[in-house]
Amino acid sequence: MGGPSDPPEGAPEGAPGGGEDEYGSVVFDESFIRAARLQEYSARERITDHAPAVRRRPPLRHGLSRPALILFLLIVVAFGTAIYMGVRHPYQAPAAGEQAAPLRMTVVPLAPRDEVPGTSDPEQLYASSPAAGFRVGAEGVTLPASRRTAHFSDSQVMNALTITKDYLVRSSLDPEVLTGGETRSVRVLLDPAQLDQFDRSFARPAADGRHAPTGWLVRLDPSRAELAAPEVRVRGTMRASEADSSTLEVATDHTFAYAVRPAGAGRDAEASLFTVRRELLFRFDRDDLRLHQAQVVLSEVQAGPLSCAEDSAARLRPLLAGRTAEEGGPAGTDPYAPGGTPALCGTLAADAQPEL
C-alpha cells in the first residue's frame, strides 16, 4: 500500500529512482510562490470573469518602502533648500566684532533776553505761541510714506520708522520719563551695545558729549517744574535712507512744546512755555529691525527758556513765568583736558515766546 504522499493507484510506472519523485527535493515555500510572475485564477474567477487561466503579477519591488522613500525625499529637499538660501539669501551677516556706535550728543540751553511770559490758562499759552498749529502728543510724530531701498523692503523701512516713532514718543512724551522717573520704557528700545553708555549716563551724568541723560530723553527737574497740561504739542519731520547694504538710517527733527508751572504750586499758578527741539539720527541693522530696537548715534538738543549758568546735562531746569536768566554763562572749557567738549549756550529768540 502506498504512503500518504503517493497516488491511490501507486507510483507511476517508469518513474526514476524506483518510483521516487524527481522534484521531491524542491521546496515551494511562501517566498517562492509570492515571487512567481504568473498566478492562476481560481475556478470561480475563470467562470465569473471569463478570464484566462493565468494572470501576470506585477514584479516585486525590492527597493525602499514608501515611508522611507518619502523621508529620503524630504531630507534631500530640505538640504537643497538650505544650500540655496545660503547662496542666494539677500541678507548679509554682520561683520565679526561689529558694534553699535556710541551716541554723540550736544545739549544747548537757550536763555531768554527778557522776563518769561506766563498765564494761568495753558490753552491760551499754546494759542498765543508758535506751537498753536502743532498737533497734540503722539499725533504730532507723523510717519512719512515708506519706500523700499536697494537692499531693504517697504516693510523693513516702515519698521524702522515705527521704532523711531516709539522712541520719540517714549523719550519725549511719557509723563514718567519727563518728570525724572523711570527710564526702562526708553532703555528697552536701544541696541544692547548702547546699554552700558545709557546706564552710565544716568548713574554718573557728565557734560562730556557722551553721558548726558538729556541727550537720550527729555527730563525735567521735578523739584523745579511740573507739567501744567498733559497735552504736549509736537511738530517735526522724519526721513529714512539707506546708509549701506546692511544699515538703514532715520533722521528726525522735532519740536516739543510743554506747558510748565512751578512744582507743587497748584493749578492756579501761572504756566509758561518750555520748548525742546530734538534732532536725532537712528541706525538699524537687520537684527535691530527684527528685535524692535534702535541705535541712537547722534542727538542735538536745543531747549529753553533755560539759564546758561545751570547744568543742563542731567536735568532740564526751565525758567518759569516771571523769571529772567541768571547772570553768567557756562563754566569754562579747558582745551588741555582730554575728552571734554565746549560748553554751549544760545539765546532764545523773542518770537519763540508766547505773545500774552
Q: Can I get a quick summary?
A:
The protein has helices at 16-19, 30-34, 43-49, 66-88, 122-127, 154-172, 175-178, 184-187, 195-203, 213-216, 286-291, and strands at 38-40, 54-56, 104-112, 135-136, 225-227, 233-244, 247-262, 272-284, 295-304, 346-348. It has 356 residues and is α+β, with helices and mostly antiparallel strands.
Structure description:
It is built from 11 helices and 10 strands. It has 356 residues and is of the alpha+beta class. Strands 3, 4, 5, 6, 7, 8, 9 and 10 form an 8-stranded mixed sheet that branches. A two-stranded antiparallel sheet has the order 1-2. The chain starts with 15 loop residues before the first helix and ends in an 8-residue tail after the last strand. The relative contact order is 0.17. About 3% of the residues have low confidence.
Q: Separation of termini?
A: 140 Å
Share of residues in helices = 25-40%
Element order: H for helix, E for strand? HHEHEHEHEHHHHHEEEEHEE
The number of distinct β-strands equals 10
Q: Shape from CA axes? A: elongated
- Tally of separate helices: 11
Rg over CA atoms: 42 Å
Largest sheet: 8 strands, mixed
Strand content: 15-25%
Structural class: alpha+beta
Which stretches are poorly predicted, pLDDT < 50 over at least 5 residues? 87-97
Mean pLDDT: 83
List key phrases describing it:
356 residues, alpha+beta, 11 helices, elongated
